[in-house]
Structures are given as structure tokens and as C-alpha cells.
Design goal:
By secondary structure, the chain is α/β, with parallel strands linked by helices. It is built from 28 helices and five strands. It has a five-stranded mixed sheet. The N and C termini lie far apart (76 Å).
Length: 519
């Protein structure tokens, strides 16, 4: 009877109603969103055409999710992105359950709604990304560990292990969960007891079993994904200590979780240092999943650089902790309501700006500008790649930028299905080995180098591309208006007899001088 009342109490019903409204609203927003796919979204779509256990830069789940949604709804942009709002809905449900279990029914309500209204989640719900797929699994793992503490039931150990393994199949940042759980066990006796008697070992084995196919794929492919992930940190021993990057990262956290929630978090952390002995088990547990990723990524930002979303795994615990603490007092509830209102306004303003404002205004934001007019760009390049009467057909279209490669691959999909005589798109290999997914998937092949249409976005490389052909001539520039004073500019060339020059030390030195002319 108690569980039945819990299912139908006011907090649960209110949360369920708002969850449905928000998710349906975000799916509708996807359908009217005028922005074309970002290049990484187009990249993930292309991966989804051939399902694997891993890819050059990411684990496989993002491709699996796109394959599922596009198989049902077609491959329009909104269907490519559909998994994101659905995944964030799952995260909200898990955090509602966690907040309810820790602090009560209405704390759960505010945790779930708080998650849905984070500015970062509002933005993330409009694109397909690895974070959107990892965070619900992190939230489920967090809930499972808490329930394991409360019940000692083996099922929660298995759920936690499965969530960690699947989360790592979405993004390797999921593996932060392991040191966070270890930190919690080191400081909290109930966590140690929950993981004792083989339950922690069982969770670890389940996680390893779920992740093993990706590990095998990485081993078979030279651990390329792991190397790429490590390279993102971009440490330079001669250029450490970046206070500006650290400050930018911290300010970015306020933008992602909302300015008022960020201030409340700072206050809670300051208060925790002042009265550590008075913290509850719930507080200490959540801090264990907040501080390690925040401190670690802050250190990376200080030593090199870090994107704001690199600390995303801390956000589920932050939302639950802030909600559970503020709900306990009248003033706290007022702050919570104000923080939510501010976040709703921030999220709505971004979506409204992208959908309603004139491109000349929104193109001031580079992230929006780069999504404009890719369908028009693809059509213009297709017109030039189509053989004119009396001309020899092109054997390939060569691009020197991975953005162009993936956008053409997506926006030529209908033309190819209709049987348009378009040549294959190939990627110019800058170095001796592939250094991005496009170079790995479709490098330019000598046997396809009879007569090639070359599309240059990186015009500085034009002389290097020319050296890879026996005959080479520049034909025309191509300018695609993006709105306002912005445009997308290409140089179009034709090359014949593709025979790439040797990428030796002398070639690399010339590249280095091109990039650093003052050296």
C-alpha cells in the first residue's frame, strides 16, 4: 500500500506530468529547428550506417542510438538528434528516484525537474552527443549504488555494473565513477559495507563484461580511441599553468548548471568545509561524486585546457544535493524556485534565438554559424561534381577538411538514394597516418585519382594538395552566404594523376613552418 501511494502521490504525478510536457516540447523543438547538423553529428550519423564496437574518436553508443532512431523515423536532422531529449528524460527519472530516496518526495521532484531545466541540458537536448547518452547511465549507477547501501540487494550491484559498462560505451568519462565510488568507500563505512561480500567485485565484473567488446575493438585497432581521448588534454610541458583557462572553465560551470545553482553549490561546499562533522551520509555520498571530477578537470584546465562539459559527470550529484538541501527550508525553496526559473529562461532563450531570430543576428555565435547552409553547400558542390557534356567524369571528390567530408556525406544522402551520378567523397591525408575519423574511413586512394574535383576549405594547404597530383589547376572560388556578413568559402580545383608525395620529416617541417611562420 505504501509503495502504491508513493507511485500516485502529488510529487510523483507532478513530476511525471512536467516530464512528459518537457520531453514532448523538446521533440517538437527538434522538428522545427532550422540548424543543420554540426559536423560531429554528421560524423556520428555516418558511423551509424555501419555499426561497430568502436570508432576512431568515440565509443559506439552514439552510433547505435542514431541507428535506432533513424531506423524508425528516417534520417532527418530531428531524428538523428532524437535520442538526446529521450536520454535526458531517463536521467531526470533516475535523479527523481535518487532525490526522493535521499531527501523525500518533493526533493525528488525538484531534482528531476532541476535536471531537465539545466541550461546545459536544454542545449544538449537539441543536439546528439556522447554526454547526453552517458549522463542517464551515470545517474542510474548513482541511484543503484545508493540503493545498494540501503538494501544490500545484489540486483543493485548488477544494475550499477551494467550502467557503468554501458556508460563507458557512450563516453569514457563514465569511468570517473570508479574513483568516485572508491573515494566514497574510503570515507564512508556504509559504502564499504554495501560493496563488501563480493557485491563490489560482481559490479566490477559486470561492468568489465559489458565494456569488453569495445576493449577488444580498441586492441584490434591500436587503441586509437583511447589515444585520441588522452590527446584531448593536450599537455605541453613547456607551457603549463593557465589561470585564464581555469577561470574560463569555472565560469563555464555557471553557464552549464545555471548561475544561481552554481552560487548555491559554492556556498554548500564552503559550508561543508566549515562543518564537516555535521554532514549527513547523503551529503558526504554526493560530495564524493562531485569533488573528484571537478578537481581533476580543474587541474587539467589549469595545466592545459578543458571544455566546460568535461566535468558533466558531477552535475547529477550537484542537482540532487542542491535540491535536497534547499527543499528543507522556506528560504531554500524560494531560492530553488528562483534558480529553476532562471534556468528555464536561459534554456528557452537559446532555443528561441536559434529558431526565431534572423540568421544575421544568431550568426554572431560561431557554434550556430557553423551549422548554417550545409544543404545549400552540398548542392553547390554536387552541381560542380556532376559531369558536364563532353567532359571526362570525376573519379572522386577530394576534400581537405573533415567538416566538409562529413557534411557532404550526410547532405548528399538523398541524391545518392535517387541515383545521382556523384563520385565518392574522399579525405586528403595530411600526414603519413590517419589522425581523424574521416582520414581513417575514406582516405584518397591512388586508384581513384584519375580526374578529381578538389574542394579546399583549408586554403593554406592548397600547395601541398597540388603536389599530390601530376596535373593540377585551380578552377574557381565558391562562396556560400550564411547570413549577415558571414559566408563559407571554398576554392575549387581539378587534379589528375593522384600520386601523394612522401610524408617524411622534410614534409612535416614544411607543415610546421606553415603553421608557425615566425619560428
Amino acid at each position: 500500500m505504501t509503495s502504491a501511494r508513493a507511485v500516485f502521490d502529488r510529487a510523483t504525478l507532478a513530476f511525471a506530468a512536467l516530464l512528459i510536457i518537457v520531453i514532448c516540447g523538446r521533440i517538437w523543438a527538434l522538428q522545427i529547428n532550422p540548424l543543420d547538423l554540426y559536423f560531429d553529428e554528421a560524423q556520428y550519423w555516418m558511423w551509424s550506417r555501419s555499426l561497430e564496437w568502436g570508432y576512431f574518436t568515440k565509443p559506439p553508443m552514439v552510433a547505435w542510438a542514431i541507428a535506432a532512431t533513424t531506423a524508425i523515423f528516417g534520417d532527418a536532422e530531428w531524428a538523428v538528434r532524437l535520442a538526446s531529449p529521450l536520454a535526458h528524460g531517463v536521467a531526470a527519472i533516475a535523479l527523481f528516484a535518487l532525490g526522493r530516496s535521499m531527501y523525500g518526495a518533493w526533493a525528488g521532484f525538484w531534482a528531476g525537474i532541476g535536471w531537465l531545466t539545466l541550461p546545459g541540458v536544454a542545449f544538449s537536448s537539441n543536439i546528439i552527443s556522447t554526454d547526453a547518452l552517458m549522463l542517464p547511465l551515470w545517474s542510474i549507477a548513482l541511484l543503484a549504488l545508493w540503493r545498494l547501501i540501503a538494501t544490500r540487494a545484489w540486483i543493485w550491484a548488477i544494475v550499477m555494473g551494467a550502467a557503468v559498462g554501458l556508460g563507458a560505451q557512450a563516453k569514457y568519462a563514465m569511468l570517473y565513477f570508479i574513483p568516485c565510488a572508491a573515494f566514497a568507500a574510503w570515507g564512508l563505512e556504509p559504502v564499504r559495507q554495501a560493496l563488501a561480500r563480493g557485491r563490489g567485485v560482481a559490479a566490477s565484473l559486470v561492468a568489465l563484461a559489458v565494456l569488453t567488446p569495445n576493449l577488444v575493438w580498441n586492441a584490434q585497432n591500436g587503441f586509437v580511441t583511447a589515444h585520441h581521448t588522452a590527446a584531448n588534454a593536450n599537455f605541453n610541458i613547456d607551457d603549463l599553468f593557465h589561470f585564464g583557462e581555469l577561470w574560463e572553465f569555472l565560469i563555464g560551470q555557471a553557464g552549464v548548471i545555471g548561475p544561481l545553482i552554481f552560487l548555491v553549490l559554492l556556498w554548500l561546499l564552503w559550508r561543508a568545509t566549515r562543518r564537516a562533522s555535521g554532514l549527513s551520509l547523503e551529503d558526504k555520498f554526493l560530495i564524493s561524486f562531485i569533488m573528484p571530477p571537478l578537481l581533476f578537470v580543474s587541474a587539467i584546465a589549469f595545466l592545459s585546457r578543458a571544455n566546460a562539459n568535461w566535468a558533466a559527470v558531477a552535475y547529477p550529484a550537484i542537482v540532487v544535493w542542491v535540491s535536497g538541501t534547499l527543499i528543507a527550508s522556506v528560504n531554500g525553496r524560494r531560492v530553488l524556485a528562483a534558480a529553476t526559473a532562471i534556468n528555464v529562461a536561459l534554456g528557452a532563450s537559446f532555443i528561441a534565438a536559434a529558431i526565431l531570430l534572423d540568421p544575421a543576428m544568431t550568426n554572431q555565435v560561431k557554434g550556430i554559424r557553423t551549422t548554417r547552409a550545409w544543404e545549400e553547400t552540398a548542392a553547390e558542390i554536387a552541381a560542380r561534381a556532376t559531369t558536364r557534356p563532353g567532359d571526362q567524369p570525376f573519379s572522386a571528390v577530394l576534400v581537405d577538411d573533415r567538416v566538409t567530408y562529413f557534411e557532404l556525406s550526410y547532405y548528399w544522402r538523398h541524391l545518392r538514394r535517387e541515383g545521382a551520378p556523384l563520385p565518392p567523397v574522399r579525405m586528403w591525408l595530411l600526414h603519413a597516418e590517419a589522425r581523424n575519423s574521416a582520414e581513417q574511413i575514406d582516405p584518397m586512394r591512388p586508384e581513384e585519382g584519375g580526374r578529381v574535383l578538389v574542394v579546399h576549405m583549408s586554403n593554406a594547404y592548397l600547395p601541398f594538395v597540388a603536389e599530390d597530383f601530376t596535373v593540377f589547376r585551380t578552377v574557381e572560388p565558391l562562396r556560400i552566404p550564411l547570413g549577415g556578413r558571414y559566408s563559407r568559402d571554398f576554392e575549387i580545383s581539378i587534379g589528375e594523376g593522384f600520386s601523394p608525395s612522401v610524408r617524411d620529416a622534410a614534409f612535416e617541417e614544411r607543415l610546421r613552418q606553415l603553421r608557425n611562420p615566425e619560428d
